[in-house]
Amino acid sequence: MKNFTYYRPLSLEAAVALLDNRWGTTELLAGGTDLLDLQKEYIAQPDKVVSLTFIQDPVFTRIEVPQILPGTKPTVSIGAAVKIADIAEHAELKNLFPALTDAAAQVGGPQIRNMGTLGGNLCQRNRCWYFRDEHVLCLLKGGRRCFASDGENRYHAIFTKGHPCVIVHPSTLAPALIALGASVEVVGPSGKRTIELNKFFQAPTKPDQREHVLAPNEIVVRVLIPVEGLRNASYEVRHKQSYDWPLAQAAVAFRLSGGKATNVRIVLGHVAPIPHVATEAQKVVEGQTITRELAEQAGEAATVGAAPLSQNAYKVHLVKVAVKRALLLASGAQPDWAI
Amino acid sequence: MSETHPPPGKPGISRRQFLTGTGLGAAATTLLQTSEARTQASKVQAPKTVGFGPNAVACELVVNGARISVQIEPRVTLLDCLRHYMDITGPKRVCDRGTCGACTVLLDGRPIYACTMLALEAQGKKIETPESLYQDGQLHRVPAAFAQYDAQQCGFCTPGFVMAMKGCFDRNPNATPDEVEQCLAGNICRCGTYQQMRDALRSLCKKGG
Ligand SMILES: Cc1cc2nc3c(=O)[nH]c(=O)nc-3n(C[C@H](O)[C@H](O)[C@H](O)COP(=O)(O)OP(=O)(O)OC[C@H]3O[C@@H](n4cnc5c(N)ncnc54)[C@H](O)[C@@H]3O)c2cc1C
Ligand code: FES
Ligand code: FES
Fold first, then answer.
1. Quick one: pLDDT at residue A72?
2. Is B105 on the interface with A (CB under 8 A)?
3. Nearest ligand (C-alpha, residue A115)
């Protein structure tokens, strides 16, 4: 790891003041579960590391669930410094947003969840093995091409059209949060702004881009989730029960009134460079009663536009399964598969 | 200009630093009555933060109840700080990438990977390593059960498993075998001693941890 100067600001403003307006020279450090790996591999070589660990601002460090009264439009606030384990174990969040808490409970293993934060989870870098290899100069590191597109690509994207780099976005919390209609509050040199989470991610294609749209001197302060009484669930198809990222994930949310699903949102994880909104699948479910057959049709529709690579056509099937099962879970059906 | 980091070697954050650091500038002004604090409050400007390093800085950690001070570069991980600078070699370095669990220690009671945290980030927190499980000639019941049920071969993963299991029982003395196994999901044993570990943890669950 290249050595650096370590800063320990005690407020968000002090942290912002330490950041540069270009990527690479300065890195924010939260739980470190991603950044330290990147530094050890010399993918990140910051001169300054700005720790967020000692900032005590409650907006940044706490989960706030307001009283939920009929007729009001409450918003849940989760600070960016909140540990993933604390999201997974939060009783009220489990009740309101099982899509989020189930996804959180499956991230990595217990130690990763005890260390990793919500902000770090949303801002983590992709896990493509070419990108993570110090010796490979891929598109994202200033090289001329993406080596995964015709190389070892079994864990890469299947929604590849228009993407010169075929990474998958690594966050499992992001699809759940997008389905729930969340937004992020960020702070930068000119103050705070709010970004809808479905506009927060971008597919990077060059070294001065990250997997999100933040400026290099902006910090995620918190995530805001509207309480809209939506049924919601997330289903992950995993190779192993712990440690690894899922192979495919579907997060769904919808309003159930009179037995019909409306305001349907279906978001796929780990199949595209950004969390992938499955619009065709949403259309299939909108206004309908969720049955096994309908959930299956939605699964089919979710794969519209998929263009898998040489080694990952299997993910097309996993998407169908994930969408079907997430819809059934959210509708309250008894799972007929082992969980 | 004010220093907003705890001075090296002094873990934790002083009241004054906390107040200036968290935007409670006004409170700080009345409490401290320093011109410096007043300027900060009126300008509502972030105080300037002083950095540590890149050369070695003093770092005091609280490990198994003892305060230990060493000089380390900021890039030194908690694991390397414990092993190479403090000679606390219970936590093992296997993958050094947060994927095997051999380096597991308890940080304020929670299992974490020491290889994936900077030592400076652990300042002011309570660190427990496997060394804490043998005191006054007495072996803690978790490693004792590992010995009784022969739950190790090469033993490299064992300190990590033991700490993860201890952390689990500390949080929930009535944990069921399934719950304990969940707590061990961040640890890998390459020799495959899982069945013996199951036997060990079942014996502990019966005894209520
Ligand atoms: C073995 C393993 C398995 C994993 N499995 C999963 C999984 O299944 N699902 C999943 O979603 N993730 C998984 N992860 C990734 C893990 O969730 C992330 O590494 C973690 O969430 C990152 O959070 P952190 O606080 O440790 O971030 P750090 O490592 O501290 O930071 C990560 C990046 O985010 C930036 N950053 C951090 N906080 C902020 C902020 N507030 N504002 C702006 N930028 C910020 C940092 O500068 C850095 O670039 C896994 C990781 C490992 C090692
Ligand atoms: S050495 Fe830390 S997790 Fe493997
Ligand atoms: S005993 Fe050898 S790795 Fe577990």
1. 83
2. no
3. 1
Assigned domain for B121 exists: yes
Q: Which residue of A has its CA nearest to B52?
A: A6
Q: Which domain holds residue B199?
A: 134-204
Inter-chain residue contact B49 with A8, CB threshold 8 Å:
yes
Low-confidence residues in chain A, pLDDT < 70 = 338-339
Residue B51 counted as domain residue? no
The structural domain count of chain B equals: 2
Q: Is B29 an interface residue toward A (CB < 8 Å)?
A: no
Please give the structure tokens belonging to residue B33. 């009555």
Residue A109 CA to ligand 2 centre (angstroms): 12
**Residue range A66-99, pLDDT digits in tens:** 988 888 889 999 999 999 999 999 999 999 999 9
Given a contact cutoff of 8 angstroms between Cβ atoms, the answer to whether B133 and B142 are in contact is yes
Is residue B74 one of the residues assigned to a domain? yes
**pLDDT tens digit at each of 209 positions of chain B:** 333 444 444 444 333 333 333 333 333 333 333 334 433 444 445 557 889 989 999 999 999 999 999 999 999 999 999 999 999 999 999 999 999 999 999 999 999 999 999 999 999 999 999 999 999 999 999 999 999 999 999 999 999 999 999 999 999 999 999 999 999 999 999 999 999 999 999 999 976 55
Residues 6+ apart with CB under 8 A from B6: A8, A54, B12, B13, B14, B17, B123, B124
CA angle centred on A133, ends A129 and A139, rounded to 5°: 80
Shared-domain flag, residues B141 and B119? no
| CATH code of the domain covering residue B114 | 3.10.20.30
* Residues B104 and B62 placed together within one structural domain of the fold: yes
State whether B121 and B165 are in the same domain: no
Task: Give the tens place of pLDDT for each residue, B102-124.
Answer: 999 999 999 999 999 999 999 99
Residue B104 within a domain: yes
pLDDT of residue B208: 55
| Cα(A45)–Cα(A38) distance, integer angstroms | 8
CA distance B101 to B96: 9
**B146 and B127 within one domain:** no
Distance, in Å, from the CA atom of B58 to the CA atom of B70, rounded to the nearest integer, reads 6
Residue B2 pLDDT: 38
Strand partners, B132: none
Q: Do A85 and B110 touch (CB under 8 A)?
A: yes
**Strands lying side by side in the sheet with A248-257:** A231-237, A248-257, A260-269, A276-277
The alpha carbon of B69 is separated from its chain's Cα centroid by a whole number of angstroms, namely: 15
Same domain, B114 and B155: no
Do B141 and B182 belong together in one domain? yes
Are both B162 and B112 inside the same structural domain? no
Residue nearest to atom 4 of ligand 3 (CA): B189
From chain B residues 34-73, the ones with a CB under 8 A of any chain A CB are 45-54, 57, 73
Same domain, B64 and B106: yes
